[in-house]
Amino acid sequence: MKLTFTPEELEFQSEVRAFFQNEIPADIQQKQDRAIPLEPEDTRIFHKLLYDKGWAGYNWPKEYGGTGWNAVQNYIFHSEMADANAPIIIPFGVGMVGPVIYTFGNDQQKQRFLPDILEFNTWWCQGYSEPGSGSDLASLKTRADRDGDHYVVNGTKFWTTLGQFADWIFCLVRTSSDVARRQEGISFLLIDMETPGISVKPIITLDGTHEVNEVHFENVRVPAENLVGEEGKGWTYGKVLLEHERAGTAGVARTRYRLQKLREQAKRSVRGAPPMVEDKSFMRRLAEVEVNLKALEYTDLRTLATVASGKAPGPESSILKLVGTELQQAVDELYVEAAGYYALPWVPEQFALDFPDDERVGEGIETDASSRYFNFRKASIYGGSNEIQKNIIAKHVLGV
Amino acid sequence: MDFSLNEVQTMLADSVEKFIANDYDFDARQKYVKSEPGFSKDVWQTMCELGWTAVPFAEADGGLDGGPVETMILMQRFGRGLLVEPYLANVVLAGGALSRLATESQKERWLAPIIGGELQATLAFVEPQSRYEIANVQTTATKSGDDWSINGKKAVVLNGGNADIMIVPARTSGNATDTDGITLFVVDAEAAGVSRRNYPTVDGHQAAEVELDNVAVSADSVLGEVDAAYATLSEIVDEATLAVAAEAVGIMQILTEKTVEYAKNRQQFGVPISSFQALQHRMVDMFTASEQTYSLLVWATMANADRGEDAKQAVHSIKYQIGTAGKKVGQEAVQLHGGMGMTWELDVGHYFKRLTAIGQMFGTADWHLDQLTA
């Protein structure tokens, strides 16, 4: 047992820290720090910066232009990125479809898609869920019928995150209904969003923002060469994709960053009110969340150490998403409580760099406490709801 | 022991239920939220005509002589209907102050038109630094001749942007957190020196930040005795706390019903999700929380109607319960509705947001628990 990094790892840590401290454009960092949503252009700039540094493929092997980093390096990278409150890496390209393509795609697909994913020339989105297929994903109904050199796609994908900006979508589609298990008739298809017959409709979430979409496919003709791997094996690829991202999905670093911010604000008097540190009840609950987060951090590190030694993640890795989202939401609740009455104002227009300071309502972390709390109720629903996570743990880990 | 409603109370309950069923669906509500002034003036007029704005006031003041029980009946149903009309600010808060402290002529000037729907009002009892301590009043009123001059800031003033008058607690003597030395003034919202920053709140209601800069107020705008408003202010805030607690109970009950209904209809894995035991237990927990909270509400309301010794304890208890159980029920309703619960389109998320806002008003669960252990 050893809790410290090696000298090489410490050196790497300083390099990453310096990068995020010095290289993020000031306006983008300001938006991050004031909870102002980034424009798609900001997101592109951020990804290109990573690309120019050679870090865009943080999770990819070297042969495809990735960093070839080990699990510890990836851990350091993500921690530093969170501590700097840098923008998040949009996961759909480099985190999700990229690994599927380099693992299961053919050479032609690798050459065609991987460089643009890495360089963020193409914005990808994910087409998994459907109106009738949420937790029960294998019941999906979007069909892809073979017609000569093409598939003809019909159906509706739901909750497509940032689909309004996407150039491409990777979809799980049904290519056969004549199968023993529903999972067997599912294929993994890459679709250009410009293809005729695709329409994108916004879904507004309860916090009033447009993040997710409904993507409708009507007789969309997709070249058969866009099928990844074998027809009918899409479910397996999709699952690999989910497991690929397991280590580090707990969001420990981001949650820790938010707790630090909360502690900082708790120490000072806001508008002349007594500082929250004087509120024993509040501070006890803050400490409670910190204890749980520390536990999760070490669950995450245990997983990491196993992966770093070349073994498959242990059973403890199955709880990362579950506990990670619970703690994320617990911190959101503390923010709301700390805001007191200032959790009430809803002034979306003040999330702009040029918004006049004297018209601002609420201070610091108060301003988006409620919006974020509402928005992140999604965390225990998306990516396999926490109920589904428990089913998976019960079945595959406990064996019951 | 009798927990049933009498004939008049039943009529009141029926009239609200009928109105909401026939004239106040969620789509209409969403339309009112988006409109100016953030609620429906027509609905407000109807509420006045149906006598609801008169409910808690004495007959002599043009009221219906109701008390906390009648307010509970209304608010619980307003919760079910997710009403955004400013009943709390006008009737419970401003009306509560006027009915307790105003002279006959002051009542005629301000309370009567509130009951009639001609005047919008509020009580500005929160300051930027005060959190939940209502004695923390730093807004000052200084006397010059017969008049007063008010200076200070009021925070998150409910219905503040739409109010024609604001009842403003101001410090007329003592230190910033003393209970003695607080006086209530009726301030014309359009008076010179009043500036308001109006904004919507997360629950679809309206509030404002208010600045008072040398606002001149005449002697006939003082409510009650100078320096002695704290006890009354505290009573009004307790009554308002009970009112929002009743509204929250209505929301918890309808969220439980809606969740059960959704779970019965939503098919996954070839069966309704209500057939999963894990989810059944979660819905039972929501039901249990709602029933327990209603029980506390009944106790708290009756203890306050009787002005019993346990009245204050009951207020802290019910608001603690709203803060914890209400939060749980709101979160579970969204969670069990899955992605649909996250949408703006569905009412569930909006009920959840109102529960959240109520949780932050008049003291969080922690704050009330602290009062109970103090």
**Low-confidence parts of chain B lasting 5 or more residues at pLDDT below 50?**
none
- Counted beta strands of chain B: 10
Oligomer: heterodimer
Rg of chain A, rounded, reads: 22 Å
CA-based shape of chain A: globular
CA(first)-CA(last) distance of chain A: 32 Å
Main pleated-sheet profile of chain A:
4 strands, mixed
* Ends apart, CA distance between termini of chain B: 31 Å
Order of helices and strands of chain A: HHHHHHEEEEEEEEHHHHHH
Summarize the main sheet of chain B.
Answer: 4 strands, mixed
Run of helices and strands of chain B = HHHHHHEEEEEEEEHEEHHHH
Strand content of chain B: 15-25%
Which geometry of chain B do the CA atoms define? Answer: globular
Radius of gyration of chain B: 21 Å
How does this structure look, described?
The complex is a heterodimer of chains A (400) and B (374). In chain A, helix 4 runs parallel beside helix 8 (252-267) and helix 10 (320-339) packs antiparallel against helix 11. Chain A is an alpha+beta fold and 400 residues long. In chain A, strand 2 (143-147) and strand 3 form a beta hairpin. Chain A starts with 6 loop residues before the first helix and ends with a helix. Chain A has helices at residues 7-22, 26-33, 40-53, 71-83, 91-104, 107-119, 234-244, 252-267, 280-308, 320-339, 369-375, 386-397; strands at 124-127, 143-147, 150-157, 168-174, 186-192, 198-204, 210-223, 227-228. With 374 residues, chain B is an alpha+beta fold. Chain B is 51% helix and 16% strand. In chain B, strands 1-4-5-8 form a four-stranded mixed β-sheet, covered by helices on one side. A four-stranded antiparallel β-sheet of chain B has the order 2-3-7-6, with no helix packed on it. In chain B, a hairpin with a 2-residue loop joins strand 2 (140-144) and strand 3. Classes of the chains: A alpha+beta (400), B alpha+beta (374). At the A-B interface, helix 9, helix 10, helix 11 and helix 12 of A face strand 6, strand 9, helix 9, helix 10 and helix 11 of B.
